[in-house]
Write a structure and sequence with these properties.
Blueprint: H1 45-48, E1 56-61, E2 74-75, H2 76-82, E3 101-103, H3 117-129, E4 134-138, H4 146-161, E5 168-172, H5 179-190, E6 201-202, E7 205-209, E8 218-221, E9 226-229, E10 236-242, E11 246-253, E12 262-269, E13 276-282, E14 289-299, E15 302-312, E16 316-320, E17 329-332, E18 335-337, E19 340-341, E20 343-347, H6 350-358, E21 360-365, E22 377-379, E23 389-390, E24 396-402, E25 405-408, E26 411-412, E27 420-421, E28 425-426, E29 429-430, H7 441-453, E30 457-461, E31 467-474, E32 477-483, H8 505-518, E33 548-549, E34 558-561, E35 568-571, E36 578-585, E37 589-596, E38 610-614, E39 628-635, E40 638-644, E41 650-661, E42 664-670, H9 671-674, E43 681-688, E44 704-706, E45 713-716
Parallel strand pairs: 1-4, 1-30, 2-3, 4-5, 5-7, 7-21, 21-22, 24-30
Antiparallel strand pairs: 3-31, 6-7, 8-20, 9-16, 10-15, 10-17, 11-14, 11-20, 12-13, 12-15, 16-19, 17-18, 23-24, 25-26, 25-27, 28-29, 31-32, 33-36, 34-35, 36-37, 37-42, 38-39, 38-43, 39-40, 40-41, 41-42, 43-44, 43-45
Helix pairs in contact: 3-4, 7-8
The structure holds calcium ion (3 copies).
């Protein structure tokens, strides 16, 4: 995620929120069917159970496509295709400069920029269709990407004004020093109240992933060169003077990588024998953690003394042997000792206090292996088997599920190193079966584990990272060419569909897992038989149910530059915006109805309003399952019904009657022509202005598909 340019370390994580209000235009996407390119069917209500409103899914989301451009797009897949030995040739002109961002592959939306509204709208739709409640922005590398999140919020709010659904948003802040980023987010977004309807809330407040102990102005000493152990029955202390009211005092405490250490932190007036002002007991101390004792109301300026005592296990206090804190003094056993200890004094500040009370904080765990070091921590990515992160009430609150992990053996590594846990890593090894990368085996192993533990929130890593900086050294390993968080198709962790490769497999795999986690509503049953007279107007449909819905406003056009101006992405294929469909039946015919948002364009338009029918509800027959298409050719009130010969190739089957006026259209298909003599149970969808490419991925990027992408409506008599 953020190893780009000269920036620092590692990566990051997650998010959450809670919502619950009904969208103005509920498309019932949890009742849609779909089968992916591998023939894997998305499960439905009877298999996954009813909706569980107390379960939430969050997606790690990146705002950085456009902020770190150094030439490019440098596409690793293309570079290695051109020169398979390029990994040994750091001087090869195929590579971008050292530290420059390289793409691991190409999205179905191209090498897009984060502020491409068309892409943001598609993301909102795809993630909402999948049941994702929150997107969690990666701001771990000290950049908030303000211009980009504001654009995303603007577009998401627009989708909601159209009655649509979107995920809400939260931020994963820097692990080790979140102060500036949290302050900026509060100042720029939350304090001014920008799009509060889009803030993901947890326990009643906007969620932020940041260590609350590290928030706010601090004084003290962070210089350290010696870890002083707390001996049994002993105390260690540090005196200090402060010129302003303060509300917390603490230090940094080592455990020498041991678990189970404990001590009591106490604040006294003036010195070792001063009056006790506050104490706090810490159990299971995390190695090298900053820990504080808080006071409320704040204490005035003056002279104070911080002390640890009643140690258990191996615990200590990071200190410095020099006099690094002018108006302070280290103590041991109540007597002055050389040097000073680490010290963090939080200056009382009304705004910081407001900030701390504004959010629900969860402290992010950067490490892939360690698990929670205390309550109210969240993970963003871990190796299998992932830990359960509990809240302060001891409830199973959160787990991460990743597509792949840049872990090598038991250490943090680079995706480009041998042994990294790519998309095909599971059962402790990389599956080398041909085509394994298409199947999401690592993702499935992690998601199955999360389903078994069933926490309240699942953090998925991730959606659209796409780029990583080129390095020559990482975490003690030197290689000619290295990529840390993303590398190639196998060694990458994005779910957003890619061009070529595994296409949209991971997306529908995610849809399936999220349904199993959150449940789904039952497929609505058809109302009683009815005969529709095509010349009798559209009022006849009033009593026919169910109404199958599609998003409004999902035909917006695209005209935006690509990454580093590599292309101008233009798509004006959005035309008739399909919003509702119905099916009626009698003994002879099936009747299909569609309604668009505005008046239909002329029927003579190319690729106008096609109906696809999977008559046997069997993906293995027909083109992508569809056995029939209606409307590829038409004359007057007659439209063609054609049968698939297996691919996107159709042979005439019959002519059917079709009538349209204004924004409505209906047609009648004889049951006999579809082979649906008995109870009619089939899948169908409408499409408008799709290229005749035979590539169903176009349904995510062109015209309108109702329902979206590969999804189908399911008609059950
Ligand atoms: Ca639509
Ligand atoms: Ca079929
Ligand atoms: Ca649509």
């Amino acid at each position: 995620m953020k190893r780009i340019c000269v920036c620092a370390l590692a990566a990051l994580v997650a998010l959450l929120a809670a919502g619950g209000e009904e969208p103005a235009w509920d498309t019932f996407s949890d009742t849609w069917g779909a089968t992916d390119a591998l023939g894997r069917r998305v499960p439905a209500a009877p298999e996954v159970g009813p909706p569980r409103p107390d379960r939430f899914a969050g997606m790690f989301y990146f705002l950085w496509l456009g902020s770190h451009v150094v030439g490019g797009p440098h596409d690793v897949a293309r570079i290695l295709a051109e020169d398979p030995d390029a990994m040994r040739k750091p001087e090869s002109p195929l590579w971008g400069p050292l530290h420059a961002a390289h793409h691991w592959g190409e999205s179905i939306f191209g090498y897009y920029l984060t502020d491409d509204a068309y892409v943001l709208r598609a993301h909102a739709r795809m993630l909402a269709d999948a049941g994702i409640d929150a997107v969690i922005f990666d701001v771990t590398n000290q950049v908030t990407y303000r211009r980009y999140y504001l654009e995303l919020l603007r577009v998401f709010a627009e989708v909601r004004r159209d009655g649509g659904r979107t995920p809400r948003v939260a931020f994963l802040c820097p692990f080790w020093d979140p102060r500036r980023v949290v302050d900026e987010l509060f100042r720029d977004l939350y304090e001014p109240g920008i799009h509060p309807e889009l803030w993901f809330r947890w326990e009643g407040k906007p969620l932020i992933l940041a260590d609350p102990q590290l928030i706010g102005g601090r004084e003290g000493n962070d210089k350290q060169n010696i870890a002083v152990e707390l001996a049994e029955g002993q105390t260690l202390g540090q005196s200090f003077a402060v010129d302003a009211p303060f509300d917390a005092a603490g230090g940094r405490f080592p455990t020498w990588q041991t678990a189970g250490g404990a001590f009591t932190l106490a604040l006294r007036r003036e010195g070792p024998r001063g009056a006790m002002l506050a104490t706090r007991r810490f159990e299971n101390v995390e190695d090298n953690a900053w820990l504080s004792v808080e006071v409320d109301p704040p204490l005035p300026a003056g002279a104070y003394y911080l002390e640890v005592s009643e140690g258990r296990g191996k615990v200590g206090w990071w200190s410095h042997t020099g006099d690094v804190l002018p108006r302070g003094q280290a103590f041991a056993g109540g007597a002055a000792a050389p040097g000073d200890r680490t010290l963090a004094i939080r200056i009382a500040d009304a705004r910081m206090r407001r900030l701390r009370e504004f959010f629900t904080f969860r402290k992010p765990q950067p490490d892939y292996f360690r698990g929670p070091a205390g309550p109210d921590m969240w993970s963003w990515l871990e190796v299998y088997p992932q830990h359960v992160f509990e809240n302060a009430r001891g409830e199973k609150e959160q787990m991460s599920v990743g597509v792949a992990q840049n872990a090598v053996g038991g250490r943090l590594g680079s995706m480009s190193e041998p042994g990294a846990r790519g998309r095909s890593f599971h059962g402790g090894a990389t599956d080398t079966t041909p085509g394994a990368v298409l199947r999401g085996l690592n993702f499935a192993e992690q998601f199955e584990r999360a389903l078994a533990e069933d926490p309240r929130f699942i953090f998925i890593t991730g959606w659209n990272e796409w780029i990583a900086g080129r390095f020559a050294e990482f975490n003690g390993v030197r290689l000619p060419v290295m990529f840390v968080d993303q590398f190639d198709q196998e060694h990458s962790r994005d779910i957003e569909p890619m061009r070529g490769g595994h296409g949209d497999n991971y997306y529908y795999q995610m849809v399936s897992f999220v349904r199993r986690y959150k449940g789904a509503r039952p497929v609505p049953r058809a109302s009683a038989p009815a005969t529709i007279r095509l010349d009798g107007g559209f009022a006849q449909w009033a009593g026919v149910g169910p109404e199958f819905r599609d998003d409004m406003g999902d035909t917006a056009h695209r005209d935006h530059p690509g990454y580093n101006d590599c292309a101008r992405y233009v798509d004006r294929s959005g035309r008739n915006d399909i919003v509702a469909c119905k099916v009626a039946r009698d003994a002879e015919n099936l009747y299909f109805y569609a309604r668009t948002r505005a008046s239909l364009t002329p029927a003579a338009d190319a690729r106008w309003m096609l109906l696809l029918i999977d008559a046997d509800a069997d993906y293995r027959t027909g083109w992508e399952g569809y056995d029939f298409v209606v409307g590829r050719t038409a004359s007057g009130a007659k439209a063609s019904l054609e049968r698939s010969t297996g691919a996107w190739a159709w042979e005439p089957a019959a002519e059917v009657a079709r009538v349209h006026a204004g924004n409505e259209l209906h047609l009648a298909v004889p049951r006999a022509a579809l082979g649906l003599g008995g109870a009619a149970s089939f899948d169908f969808k409408w499409i408008d202005n799709m290229p005749p490419s035979g590539d169903i991925l176009d349904f995510l990027t062109h015209g309108d598909a109702a329902p979206n992408g590969r999804f189908n409506y399911r008609y059950r008599e």
